[in-house]
Amino acid sequence: MRPEELKAGGKATPAEERRAQSLGAAGPGSPRGIAKPAAAASEDTAAPGTGAPRTLLPGATIGVLGGGQLGRMMALAGSAMGYRFVALDPAPDAPCGQVTPQITAAYDDRDAARELARRADVITYEFENVDADVAALLTAESYVPQGSALLYTTQHRLREKAAIEAAGVPVAPYRKVSSLAELTAAAAELGLPCVLKTATGGYDGKGQAVIRQPEGLEAAFRQVAPGGSAGGSPPELVLEKFVAFKCEISVVAARSASGEVKSFPAAENIHVNNILHLSIVPARVPEEIQRRACGLAEQIVSGMNAVGLLAVEMFVTESGELFVNELAPRPHNSGHYTMDACITSQFEQHVRAICNLPLGDTSLLTPVVMVNVLGQHLDGAIQAVCTKEEAGNRLGVAPKLHIYGKTESKTGRKMGHINLLCKDTGDGLSWVEQTNLWRN
């Protein structure tokens, strides 16, 4: 990483100035910490890498591993609270880098990671596929309240399922699979249909295949693990029993560094081509199921000692059972509705959690439907929201547009979202239908 790759100038950062004050006040040999004279720190600072909670007040600098849309929205929310941000991302014009200083370097660049640590008082990540070794390095050399253990767990589906079960929460029956023979045996044991997934990586439906008939086993194995039959290291796969679900819901829960826990209202999620299309809040399930889903999410975030946000995706069966599908240790697409419809947004809550502030009120202010804007919808969505249109007035729907600032618009790529504030979620769904942008 070269100095010219830093978007900020050569002046000392606020974090550096506070550390210099702290070292000057504390004397040689004192732990590197946040300067107590600065407004950005409280008296309960701790040495880097100890994991002890610190309270970081507005004025502190938050380093973000990842410069995508989640980092962008986090920086916008945190900046309104008075925090400074710096991001690390390999893309020169990353969405987060458009609104905050950016270090342009690869995620596994250790020099860049150390530069991020030098410029920040606290470090977080905005997506879970951050290099775990870099996260561990930062945890040892800086203050990363989320730590690297949560990343290590959630980057691997088998470890993640074991952690969910350890928290006393049910998941769909599953088996570890590393060969076609093991897949065949596991499918016979679990019964079809099943879903074969890679243990690591994969999102928005990538890295997985649904198996409905025995004759589809080999094709699914070759699709998900294309090199699995060519020798070498066996692939790490997981076979999950297909859950016949009534709907999918998710709950974003937050836990602060000192252990306070709160969850947001459950969102009902509808996917199209394995990409989230709609989030409907309140979810169209009985209130008892909504409460139970929030309780399970809080149970998991507490059981894993997570800090920050944890999104918990669940299946709801016809009989009202809940099975956890996946976790995401960060702000989540299905939580974007909170930006306009809740007293506290998920992004503000994440900042509060990692800075050890009291968590904000998560109450829902209005029913809302969040609809994703993909590349093929972008121009039409801007036109629909930024020009006078009849559907919103007729239905009593207030569309709130959020565009992510990605440099290239592609079919199927998330470019933004619209939060439809409404008196009834049916009106929001009618707006989506009548606007006619999401048919392609």
- Overall body shape: globular
Q: Residue ranges: pLDDT <50 for 5 or more in a row? A: 1-11, 18-50
Residue fraction in strands:
15-25%
Q: What separation lies between the terminal Cα atoms? A: 42 Å
Query: What is the overall number of helices?
Result: 14
Rounded mean pLDDT score:
87
Q: Total number of β-strand segments?
A: 17
The level of helicity is 25-40%
Report Rg: 22 Å
Give a quick account of the main beta sheet: strands, pairing sense, barrel closure.
Answer: 9 strands, antiparallel
Structural class: alpha+beta
Descriptors:
440 residues; alpha+beta; nine-stranded antiparallel β-sheet; four-stranded parallel β-sheet; 14 helices; 17 strands; 31% helix; 23% strand; globular
Structure description:
- With 440 residues, the chain is of the alpha+beta class.
- Helix content is 31%, strand content 23%.
- It is built from 14 helices and 17 strands.
- It has helices spanning 14-26, 69-81, 110-119, 132-141, 149-154, 157-166, 180-190, 217-224, 287-303, 338-341, 346-354, 378-386, 390-395, 425-435, and strands at residues 61-65, 84-89, 102-104, 122-125, 174-177, 194-198, 208-211, 237-241, 245-255, 261-263, 267-272, 275-281, 308-317, 322-328, 368-374, 398-403, 414-421.
- Strands 9, 10, 11, 12, 13, 14, 15, 16 and 17 form a 9-stranded antiparallel sheet that branches. The chain has a 4-stranded parallel sheet with strand order 3-2-1-4, with helices on both faces.
- A hairpin with a 2-residue loop joins strand 11 and strand 12.
- Helix 2 crosses helix 11.
- It is globular.
- The two termini are 42 Å apart.
- 44% of the residues are buried.
- The model is unreliable at 1-11 and 18-50 (pLDDT under 50).
